[in-house]
Amino acid sequence: MINTVLAQAAAGGGGILGQVFLFGSIILIMYFFMIRPQQKKQKETKKFIEEIKKGDDVVTIGGLHGKIYSVDGDTVQLELDRGLKVKVEKSAISLDFSKKSTPSK
User: What SMART domains does the record tag this protein with (predicted)?
Assistant: First the structure.
């Protein structure tokens, strides 16, 4: 009977260390597959918005396609058609859709 108790104790003795390892690996996986890519995308978006200049073709989050007519601080004027200009916030310009709409060379 003592042999049975000792065998059961030996089998369950590494439970705490195993749980810590499992929890740590889950956090590590979440960092590399969720947190890090999101931070990278935010950095790219910020860089894109800071580098917007006159003449760039962009798409807003609302789906308006236009060319940058002027840049004034946190706002830009988009020329949607000849003579039709719209003032929008820089943060309303979509990096993802602007990249897709520009023709590749």
Answer: YajC
